[in-house]
Design a protein that fits this description.
alpha+beta, Glyas_Bleomycin-R_OHBP_Dase, 2,3-Dihydroxybiphenyl 1,2-Dioxygenase, domain 1, about 15% helix, 10 strands
């Protein structure tokens, strides 16, 4: 079996050890209270496109795709919104989340405001480089980050010669 290339590992001088011959992240799977509401959110807010889902599944769901990644939504009747505490919707950037790169944080912030989506801002500064972050929830409380994180260089903690 041919080993998948790991470009960033090669670019930063780390041995390309890929024990499972992984190629990329294929999809993330999210439980939701309403597949219909979640499909609308991921399409309208993040630009994901609904795609055909195999009919052999014995549970409700939907598949979406864009940016080289899939989102698989699974209907869950008993889902509790993890982000609700004492009746308030808490946006905590330290909660589990997934992140998307964007071209313009200012444009994303403007669009979130137009769509009346509550968000919090984050800012990371390292060596004069500033990363701007926006955090918000999907309809079921899953945390989403939008950032310009690609401006921060990937600095390896190990090199080819260290073990």
């Amino acid at each position: 079996m041919k080993e998948a290339s790991c470009g960033i590992a090669n670019n930063i001088g780390i041995d390309n050890k890929n024990p499972l011959s992984l190629k990329s992240l294929n999809h993330i799977s999210l439980q939701c209270r309403s597949v219909e509401d979640s499909v609308k959110f991921y399409h309208k807010v993040l630009g994901f496109i609904p795609i055909r889902r195999p009919g052999s599944f014995d549970f409700e769901g939907a598949w979406l795709f864009n940016y080289g990644i899939g989102i698989h939504l699974i209907q869950s009747e008993g889902l509790v919104n993890c982000s609700t505490r004492a009746g308030r919707h808490i946006i905590n950037p330290k909660d589990d989340h997934f992140s998307f790169l964007c071209e313009s944080i200012a444009m994303v912030e403007k669009k979130l405001e137009e769509m009346k989506i509550e968000y919090v801002k984050g800012r990371v500064e390292e060596g004069g480089i500033i990363v701007e972050q926006l955090f918000f929830h999907d309809p079921d409380g899953s945390m989403i980050e939008i950032c310009n994180c690609d401006s921060l260089p990937v600095v390896p903690l190990i090199t080819r010669n260290s073990n």
